[in-house]
Amino acid sequence: MGKSYGFIEITGVVAAINALDIMCKTADVELASWERKLGGRLVTLIVQGDVSAVTAAVNAAVEQAIKKPASYAVIANPHEEIVKLVELSASRWKKKQEKPEEPQESKKGSKK
Q1: How far is CA 82 from CA 5, 35, 47, 76, in A?
Q2: What is the C-alpha separation between 40 and 66, in angstroms, rounded?
Q3: Which positions ≥6 away from 43 have C-beta within 8 Å?
């Protein structure tokens, strides 16, 4: 079967991590991307995998997460524009991960 995406929008980072843990343990899915809005009060998780795995993962998270999701959806065989949107989101997320920390000395400046 082809690729599909599962989306869960939930309030709070802890609840989002809990939902992601449930999804990854329930079925063979992987995190495609995630977005935090409103200072982390609203988190969107996007997982990917085959249709049956994504459907099982999303349903399990909806039933078992510590908070009820605000919304959720499964998109089987997503249109290429949806794929581009998820890839754009993932590239922003990955850039933030790869950004190296500035050395402490360069932040303070050098005074002698």
Answers
A1: 9, 15, 13, 11
A2: 16
A3: 9, 10, 11, 12, 13, 15, 16, 34, 35, 36, 37
- For the stretch 96-103, contacts whose Cβ atoms lie closer than 8 Å and that sit 24 or more positions apart, written own/partner, are none
Residue type for position 80: E
Sorted by sequence, the CB contacts under 8 Å of residue 13 that are 6+ apart come out as 36, 40, 43
Token digits of residue 78: 């997503």
Dihedrals φ, ψ of 92, to 5°?
A: -65, -40
pLDDT value at position 103?
55
Q: pTM of the predicted model, to two decimals?
A: 0.79
Quick check: 34 pLDDT over 80? yes
- Retrieve residue 70's tokens: 């605000």
> How many other C-beta atoms are found inside a 10 Å radius of the C-beta of residue 110?
6
Helix axes 13-26, 51-64, angle to 10 degrees: 130
The two three-digit tokens of residue 52, written as one number: 């049956």
